[in-house]
Amino acid sequence: MSNPMDDPLRKIVGDRTAKVLADHLGLHTAGDLLHHYPRRYAERGELTRLADLPVDEYVTVVAQIAKADKRTYGRGSGVRLEVVVTDGSGSLTLVFFSKAAHAHAHRLIPGRRGMFSGKVSVFNRTRQLAHPDYQLLDADEGAEKDALDAFANRLIPLYPACKQITSWRIGQAVDTALNSLTAIGWEGVGEPLPAALREARGLAPLPEALERIHRPRTKADIAAARDRLKWDEAFVLQVALARRRAADSALPAVPRRPGRDGLLTAFDAKLPFTLTDGQRRVSGEIFEDLAAEHPMHRLLQGEVGSGKTMVALRAMLGVVDAGGQAAMLAPTEVLAQQHHRSVTEMMGELAESSGMLGGSDLGTKVVLLTGSMGTPARRQALLDLVTGEAGIVIGTHALIEDKVKFHDLGLVVVDEQHRFGVEQRDALRAKAAQPPHLLVMTATPIPRTVAMTVFGDLETSVLDQLPAGRSPIATHVVPAAEKPHFLSRAWERVREEVEGGHQAYVVCPRIGDEEEGKGSGKAKAAKKDKEPGPDDERRPPLAVLDVAEQIAQGALRGLRVEVLHGRMQPDAKDDVMRRFTAGEVDVLVATTVIEVGVNVPNATAMVIMDADRFGVSQLHQLRGRVGRGSAPGLCLLVSEAPEATPARMRLDAVAGTLDGFELSEIDLQQRREGDVLGQAQSGSRSSLRVLTVMDDRDVIEAAREEATAVVTADPELTAHPDLRSALDSLLDADREEYLEKG
Asked: At what angle are helices 616-623 and 646-656 packed, to 10 degrees?
């Protein structure tokens, strides 16, 4: 018998609703709909908080109408209805224009309560919903009385919704699906959790959990349902990762043990500094893995500037010592070129083979391979790789192309894992005759539980020590709107750093060569005459080209100011970075293209414009570009975000600590779970809906143990057909996403 959870939604809710659910929420089957859980619940009589509503998101609120006014605009030619709703902690304005203003005025009167749904915007510093959908909850007449009765004795589920379908319409569809499954006694609905596991942990059966989460009578119902559904998500994901670990560990690999007096020894002897204890410890873990007869799968994470590149280079040299080749995959050409420069500089004559002028007898060629290289240079690099002349190659996605062949690929190093999908790193690994060893690096500190969940197929090493000589970075928020003179002082500080012999970065969210703002005078006039809209107040993010021109002609006149962004030609980007590194540029105005890997020890100051437009981890990454030499670093976060807003609190958190692991937890708490976990599934949307990796550490760890035990005892899951079906469903969704992305 087929599983009714796989039935298409059109059979349950009709073609029209099914199309909206599929197109706008990605829900295609009964199971998809029933696993679309309420975001939260409102209670009869409860006034939910309005004070913290997120701007630019679709929300549903339960509130009471405090006042309603009709106003005219356009010299009396237009009318709008403004309705203020309140919850005791804050207020929200509902706005209707023209005919809608007249149509809703007689229903939206003070004292009435309802559910209101729409996209939150800001106009005149006030949060508002323009033309929201709503359902009144305390009316006496007809359909409204039915709505009141429906919600009278239970919690009101509020679903993640969108403009095209409201929370309560999703709730109606869920009710229909639950009724149809109840009518057949849930026959054929699979149980992904093994019975022994459910019983041992006191977890509810799946039908009961779904009934309770969508139709709770008490908060205890919600808690019990969530406990069960968290286990579903954690366990199925951990089974997938456990099977991947088991399959990888069963593969053969060539052990790569460096020689006693070879390339690695020669490199270590010429280092002008001592490795940190952390670098030595992590290198030991890596070399132990490289000596094994199954492939290494290790995640190397650490603070910005903790010396990950040095650890990775020593691993690559060790593999070359053992007769193999090593490839480093970088996410951008700027970063690939930077890595190539720094590696060849650190290696010196060891970066040339003995057949080359000035090369060392122990040396190996280090080549660069990017998509924009000229044909002769590209042809030579490919030849060096296939013959084995080059022991190390550093490149971008160009390394994955079919034309790239290796003589004996022994190690793949992936820099900034979050920029690549699982299938991309696998494509590079597939270029080896036998599975190569894999080292994944990230400078974004990841809490342990996230690492376990996202990178569960990798062992983890952490570098939590900064090399000697690295300087502290002072970080300050510059409230440009409240205190414009603070921004003037920020530019003065940049000038002072340059006059002291140092250099500075200015980072902007946008390039500035887009087509915006080029409309005709008639179009601009029309825009000027129209009724002000909710989004008019939020200006576009500041742009590199605009800011560079402004400061070069104003606050930083006389200094050598250059720009760097992703749409520049590769040669131009490389030229700017070379000149900045050489000290020929005082101030580099750039996008986040400089976020990772760029190493200019003489750069001591950074000004991040519109800093509230960046994430916490991204700000921490950017800040890590300064303070890389002996002089202290300075990072100034410029923002117009008002004090005490969530955006400003994020910036205060960044200014308050240099601990990347602490910041990563703050970042994770403020972002949707899927944004984080989607990275693990090659950019696909996360399958996690109730499990939160920060709050459910115990569940994740316990699920990992249970999953490992199940996979060890039954690798093919022969005795667990429902679990296998759930696993296939998860992986099928990912494969579909890969295909869609081309």
From this structure: 40
Helix (H, G, I), strand (E, B) or coil at 66: strand
Which 3-state string (H, E, C) describes 547-581?
Answer: HHHHHHHCCCCCCCEEEECCCCCHHHHHHHHHHHH
CB atoms within 10 A of CB 35: 18
At 433 the pLDDT is 83
Length of the chain: 742
- Distance linking the first and last C-alpha atoms of the chain: 35
> For residue 150, what are the contacts with CB-CB under 8 A and spacing of at least 6?
none
Q: Please list the alpha-helical segments (H only) found in 133-276.
A: 142-151, 167-183, 195-201, 206-214, 219-249, 263-270
Tell me, what's the pLDDT at 682? 36
Q: Please tell me the pTM assigned to this model.
A: 0.66
Strand 437-442 and strand 297-302: pairing?
Answer: parallel
| Environment class of 138 (CB within 10 Å of its CB; exposed 0-12, middle 13-18, buried 19+) | middle
Burial 655-682 (b: 16+ CB within 10 A, else e): beebebbbbbbbbbeeeebeebbbbbbb
Lowest mean per-residue pLDDT among 105-109, 405-409, 466-470, 676-680: 676-680
Q: Which two tokens stand for residue 378?
A: 């590209």
Helices and strands (H, E) in the chain, number of each type: 26, 21
Which residue from 105, 23, 95 is spatially nearest to 534, judged by alpha carbons? 95
Report whether 397 contacts 404 (CB < 8 A): no
What DSSP string runs through 284-341?
A: HHHHHHHTSSS--EEEEEE-TTS-HHHHHHHHHHHHHHTT-EEEEE-SSHHHHHHHHH
Phi, psi of 565 (to 5 degrees): -155, 170
Query: What's the per-residue H, E or C state across 578-642?
Result: HHHHCCCCCEEEECHHHCCCCCCCCEEEEEECCHHHCCHHHHHHHHCCCCCCCCCEEEEEEECCC
Strand pairing category for 390-395 and 409-415: unpaired
**Please, how many CA atoms are within 13 Å of residue 95, restricted to the half-sphere of its CB?**
21
Are the CB atoms for 625 and 590 separated by under 8 Å? no
> Using an 8 Å Cβ cutoff, are 396 and 371 in contact?
yes
For residue 477, pLDDT beyond 60:
yes
- How many Cβ atoms from other residues are within 10 Å of residue 646's Cβ? 12
pLDDT digits (tens, 9 = 90+) for 381-390: 999 999 999 9
Coil, strand or helix at 532: coil
CA distances from 385 to 341, 381, 388, 410 (A): 18, 6, 5, 12
What is the rounded average pLDDT of the residues 327-339?
87
The closest of 459, 513, 498 to 299, measured between CA atoms, is: 459
List CB contacts of 142: < 8 A, sequence separation 6 or more: none
pLDDT tens digits for range 78-127: 899 999 999 877 889 999 998 888 889 989 999 998 888 888 888 888 89
